[in-house]
Amino acid sequence: MVKLPIYMDNHATTRLDPRVLEAMLPYFSEKFGNAASRNHAFGWEAEEAVEKARATIASLLNAKSKEIIFTSGATESDNLAIKGVVEFYREKGNHIITCVTEHKAVLDSCRALERLGKAEVTYLPVDKYGMVDPDDVRQAITDRTVLITIMYANNEIGTIHPVAEIGKIAKDKGILFHCDAVQAVGKIGVDVERDGIDLLSLTAHKIYGPKGLGALYVRSRGPRVRLAPIIDGGGHERGMRSGTLNVPGIVGFGAACEIAAAEMAAEARRLTDLRNKLQAGVFERLDEVYLNGHPTQRLPGNFNVSFAYVEGESLLMGISDIAVSSGSACTSATLEPSYVIRALGVGEELAHSSIRFGLGRFNTEEEVDYVVDRVAKEVKRLREMSPLYEMAREGIDLKSVQWRTD
Amino acid sequence: MAYSSKVIDHYTNPRNVGSFAKDDPSVGTGVVGAPECGDVMKLQLKIDEGGVIEDARFKTFGCGSAIASSSYVTELVKGKHIDEALAIKNTVIVKELNLPPVKIHCSVLAEDAIKAAISDWKKHRGNAAEQSKKTAAEA
C-alpha cells in the first residue's frame, strides 16, 4: 500500500533532500558567521563554505565561480537580469524579445519596464507544442534590441525550447541572452557555453534544495555582462546584489547541485520511465485525453494533460490524496485559466480541464500505479456527472452550441 | 483554499445526478454557463400540471463548488411551487454551502439554472396548449 498523500507537484517545489539538510545544519548553529566578515575565523569559515557552493553551482552550468550571484530566488534573478540589463544598457537600446509562455517573473518584469516607458517588448507566440521558433526570434530583432529572454523549459508543460539555437542568434547579433532555467537545471544538461547563454536564472528549491535561495549566472567574458543592481547596500556579490548572504541556504544549494551533477543522468532516465508509465496508463484507461506540451522535447518528470469534459479543480478535489496542480481558472488567483495552455491554441475548455503531474526524485512506481487508477476512476465518475460528456456522446458538436452566459 | 464540509459532502455524494427525457412535456431543461468559462450546469425539473416541482436532476461541468451548488439546488426545489422556486436567491446557496467570495458565481449560475429550467417548462406547456387547441379546432 502506498503512503498517502502522494506528492506529484515537483514543478512547484521539491522536498529537501535529506543529504542537503545534513550539509546545511551546522550553518544554522555553530558555523553561524557572516561571509562578509573578513577579519575573524567565523567569517572565514562562512566565506569558505559559500565559495565552495558557488564553485559547485558554477560547474553544474559549465560556468566560472565568480559568474554566480546569489539572490533570494529565481523571481529576483529574473527581475535583476531583465531590469538590470535594460537599465545598464539604456544608451544602447530598449527593446526586449520574450515569449508568451514565460514565467510571470519574466513577463511582469517586462511589463513593469513597459509601464515605466523604459522598454519596448516583443512577446513571441509559441507553436501547438509550446515551442518558440528561433526564426521568430531572429525576425523580431531590431537595432534597439538589448535583451532576448526565453526560458529553458516551461514550468507547466515541460516543453524544452531550442535554447542553443536562440543563443547562437543572440551571439551573432551581439544581443544579450537571458534564460530562466529554473525547471531545467539539475534535470537536463544545461551548459552556458554550449547554449550561448549570457544570463541564467536558477533556484535551489526545484532541485531538492531549500526555498528562498536563487542565483543568477552573469557572463564575465565574451561578452562581459554588466548589470545595474536593483538592491543597493553593502556591495556584496560584486555590487550586483547587496545583502548579507544566506550561508546555510547557499550551502544547501551547493549540496543540491553536487547531488544533481552526480545523479542527473540516472535520475532523468528513471523519471522519464516513470512519466511514460503514468502517461501510458492514463491514455490506456481513458479516451479523449490530450497531452499538453511537446511529445518528446519535454522535461523528464513532466506530464500535463487535459481530460475533456472534466473541470480541473473538480478533479483535483476528487483526487485530494494526490498533490498535483491544474490550469483551471478555479485554482488560480486571477480566475483565468492557464495562459500557457491557452497559448497552445487548444481552446479554453481544455485549459480548464488540464492537470499537471510533476514527478520527482522521491516518487515511486507504486505511486504511479495508484495515481493512474485513482485518476481514471475519478475522471469516469465526473464524466458521468458532466453535461458536456453527455452532449458529446449524443453527437452534439459542443462548438456549435449557443451557450448562455448572461 | 479549503472546502466547506457541505461542499465536500455534495461533491462526494451528489444528489439527483442524471437526466430526464428532454421531450417529456412535464420536464423543463435549463443549461447555463459555457465550457470556455469552466462551468456548465444542466438542471432538469419535472413539474406537474399545478406547477409543483416533483423531481429534479442535474449534470454539471465545473469546480467542486459548482457541482455542490447544483446538487443542493435539486434538493431545495423539490416539492416547491415554481413561483417559490423562482424566488430562490443565490445567497441561500452561498449560506448553505459556506461558499467563499470567489465561488459566488457558482451559486449565481445555479439560480440561473432554476430560472432557465422553469422558463423551458413554460415554453413546453405553451406549445402543448397551442397544440391541443389546434387539435381541438381541427376536430
**Which strand order spans the largest sheet of chain B, edge to edge or round the barrel?**
1-2-3
Element string of chain B (H = helix, E = strand): HEEEHHHH
Indicate the mean pLDDT of chain A. Answer: 96
The averaged pLDDT of chain B comes out at 92
Overall, the morphology of chain A is globular
Fraction of residues in β-strands of chain A: 5-15%
Provide an overview of this structure.
The complex is a heterodimer of chains A (406) and B (139). Helix content of chain A is 38%, strand content 14%. Chain A has 406 residues and is an alpha/beta fold. Chain A has two domains: 6-11 and 263-400, Aspartate Aminotransferase, domain 1 (Alpha-Beta Complex), CATH 3.90.1150.10; 18-259, Aspartate Aminotransferase, domain 2 (3-Layer(aba) Sandwich). In chain A, the strands form three sheets. Chain A has a seven-stranded mixed sheet with strand order 2-8-7-6-5-3-4, with helices on both faces. Chain A has a four-stranded antiparallel sheet with strand order 9-10-13-12. Chain B has 139 residues and is of the alpha+beta class. Chain B has one domain (5-132): Sufe protein. Chain: A, CATH 3.90.1010. In chain B, a hairpin with a 4-residue loop joins β1 and β2 (39-47). In chain B, α1 (5-12) packs across α2, α2 (64-77) crosses α5 (104-138) and α4 (90-97) crosses α5 (104-138). The A-B interface holds A 309-311, 313-314, 317-318, 328-330, 335, 337, 347-349, 352, 384-390, 398, 403-406 and B 3, 8, 11, 14, 17, 19, 31-42, 59-67, 102, 112, 116.
